[in-house]
Amino acid sequence: MKLLTVNFLTCAVKTCKTSSESYPLHFRDAQLEQNPQTFNPLFIRNILSRLDWSALTTTANELGLTAMLPDHNPADDMMVDSEGATEEEKNRAKDNVISEEVLKKLHTFLVDTAVIEGKLVCGNCGFEYPIKEGVGNFLLPPHLV
Amino acid sequence: MDNDHIRGEEYEQTNVHNVYSKIATHFSSTRYKPWPVIDDFLRSLTTGSIGLDIGCGNGKYLAIRDDIYIVASDRHVTNLTSNEIDYFGVAKSLTRKYRSSELIEFATQHEPHSAIVADILSLPHPGAVFDFAISIAVIHHLSTRERRVDAVRAILNTLRPCGEDREGSGSAGQALFFVWALEQKNSRRGWDVDDEQDQMVPWVLKADKSGDGVGKTYHRYYHLYRRGELEEDIVAAGGEVVRSGYDRDNWWSVARRR
């Protein structure tokens, strides 16, 4: 399971959906693997605005991979508040591109790095979802459906 | 949870999930060509779009784009009989061959996408974040209208709502649904408007990993949609139909949150 995937997962239990504790899910006993994939800078660039950076930071910290992740979303540097910004600021933001080096680093973290065995745990109900051979299993036992 | 809901679930376990687990290899070998409506829908997306494929089967739609990101899910399990599988859909005997879901095993082969095992009525995804979703030939396996509408609602809830445009992503998130049509008088099955909508459909097993069960017939439950019914379910689920049509014995709709 790629680390990118975890940003788009939460607990499957209905009553957990409204709790902020259920997102992101927390890794336990995670066994990491590097699986180099094709690097597509535009793909990574466009995915940035769809990420929950705080959840991503939590995931990185829990896996001991804090160093792989910038402390804030590089896409935020591209955003300029159109109300308050001067012409100059807007132009600078427009010209400002995220360096390929930063994108490559993010690619390594989001796409190349995967959890191959382990568990994802809900911070609200404590339910543990198993990951086996890289595939997370989110089927619930009958009493939790 | 009410009794109808529990009964519906038990019914589908016997008449949908257990059957797919037996026919997965053969079924998968017949499902490789993407249909044009689905192909066009996926090709229209911007690079970096994030979406879901709910009931992805062998993951044939994951091969169309490698510059978008799809979290694909299915709940169907291996060629094992149901008593060899625990309630997580995981084989009790941990031989590598059988450890994860068989259809999902096919789906994991497509990069950069991800495949997980999940149930359509208990999706493990946050709401209001996805650019798109597809659910192809899935909700017609749910055995009550309430469950079908719940499934549509669950999928629509994952989509980015109107008015939350994102850079390079256009407007609100959209979902594409495909369901089998009641009106298919020229098909091999030959059903039409006057036929019963709830059908047990035979699948004759032609190939199996072990060679066991060849020639054996399995029956899967289907709800055949009449004209307009998919759109009614979408509206009942709080959605809005963007466009819809009929293609190869199936009704389809593109929908978004209202």
TrEMBL record, chain A:
One of its GO terms (molecular function) is protein heterodimerization activity. It holds the Pfam family Trm112p. GO terms for biological process: rRNA (guanine-N7)-methylation; tRNA methylation. It comes from the Eukaryota. Belongs to the TRM112 family. This is Uncharacterized protein. It comes from Lithohypha guttulata.
UniProtKB/TrEMBL annotation, chain B:
The keyword Methyltransferase applies. InterPro entries: AlkB_tRNA_MeTrf/Diox, Methyltransf_11, SAM-dependent_MTases_sf. Its EC number is 2.1.1.229. GO terms for molecular function: S-adenosylmethionine-dependent methyltransferase activity; tRNA (5-carboxymethyluridine(34)-5-O)-methyltransferase activity; tRNA binding. It comes from the Eukaryota. CDD domains: AdoMet_MTases (cd02440). This is tRNA methyltransferase, has a role in tRNA modification.
